[in-house]
Amino acid sequence: MIVVSDIIELKNQITSWKRDGLSIGFSPTMGSLHAGHMDLVETSKKQTDKTVVSIFVNPTQFNDPKDFENYPINTNTDLKLCEEKGVDLVFLPDVKTMYPETKTPILLSIPELQKNLCGRTRPGHFEGVLQIVSKLFHLTEPTKAFFGLKDYQQFRVISAMVENLNFPLEIVGVPTKRESDGLAMSSRNVRLSEKHRETASLIPRMFALAKKTILGGERDIHLLKEILRDFLLTGVSLRIDYLEVVDPIDLQSKEKLSGEVLLALAVFVGEVRLIDNQIIPIPN
Ligand code: PAF
Fold first, then answer.
1. Which residue, judged by its Cα, is nearest atom 1 of ligand 1?
2. Which residues contact 15 (CB under 8 A, 6 or more apart)?
3. Which amino acid positions bind (R)-pantoate, per UniProt (predicted)?
């Protein structure tokens, strides 16, 4: 496995693979890799010739400096995991490499897709994501890029950027990998205490309750949200950041429970912010 921190070295390797006619699969990550990331790698290995992973905790997407400081870093374990899984190249840049000082910063934003969910409660977050992801796309020139659907809004915003700005690559969404009790895998889960981990298991149970309530005939979005909120708030140290029902494509708030809806939430369990979502088809 090749590990590079330098842009020129990265570009030389990519150019050489491209010259040989090889396709490139790319998964950008912020490290602390888990089985969910390994699913991205496996999907990439099935669909492309060479698999590239980047590991970079991107400071520009954190609206809360404390969250950035506390973000877990496990580079040695990450590299071992990548090697075991057969990753071809890991790009491991530092902040200066990705953000040399510039007097003319660029802000990318897709306001319509960012006005709800995480875009509403984490101002500036998606501008940071689009900034780093577009830079990484230019550096790695992937044929396909793989993103986990746990970060569903991120997947939609990046897909829209690629489509609107004609980036020459395909975005592939990979289903959320879950723990045995249904909790979505996340690099942040390692920060949960035992008690908080128990509270976090309310999240998958809330999705089950939502489906059961809808199947039972509930069609009032406000009532559904009230039921789900009350359920979540039985958890110790749980605070709801948002709980929303939106259209899965344009991410606008739904007025009615009809067609397909995206039920998405962010909660703080203690200090740890967790997100999850599910697309739920509404029976007629
Ligand atoms: O999903 C993440 O881990 C990050 O938002 C990403 C896509 C690696 C950009 O920093």
1. 29
2. none
3. 61, 154
222 among known catalytic residues: no
Picking from 174, 207, 232, the residue at the C-terminal end of a domain is: 174
DSSP labels, 88-143: SEEE---HHHH----SS------HHHHSSHHHHHSTTHHHHHHHHHHHHHHHH--S
How much is the pTM? 0.97
Tell me if 196 is assigned to a ligand binding site. no
Domain end marker among 151, 174, 197: 174
By residue range, what is the domain housing residue 240? 187-277
Nearest CA to ligand 1 atom 9: 129
Ligand 1 mean position, distance from CA 61 (Å): 9
| Distance in angstroms (rounded) separating the CA atoms of residues 239 and 163 | 36
> Tens of pLDDT along the chain (284 residues)?
999 999 999 999 999 999 999 999 999 999 999 999 999 999 999 999 999 999 999 999 999 999 999 999 999 999 999 999 999 999 999 999 999 987 778 899 999 999 999 999 999 999 999 999 999 999 999 999 999 999 999 999 999 999 999 999 999 999 999 999 999 999 999 999 999 999 999 999 999 999 999 999 999 999 999 999 999 999 989 999 999 999 999 999 998 999 999 999 999 999 999 999 999 999 98
Pair (135, 69) in one structural domain: yes
In a shared domain, residues 96 and 204: no
Atom of ligand 1 nearest to the CA of 29: 8
Count of the separate structural domains present in the chain? 2
Which residues are CB-contacts of 99 (< 8 A; sequence separation ≥ 6)?
A: 59, 60
Atom of ligand 1 nearest to the CA of 151: 1
CATH number, domain of 89, equals 3.40.50.620
Residues with CB under 6 A from ligand 1: 28-30, 58, 61, 129, 132-133, 151, 154
37 is in an annotated binding site: yes
272 in any annotated domain: yes
| Ligand 1 centre distance from Cα of residue 54 (Å) | 9
Does residue 65 sit in the same domain as residue 155? yes
State yes or no: 224 annotated in a binding site: no
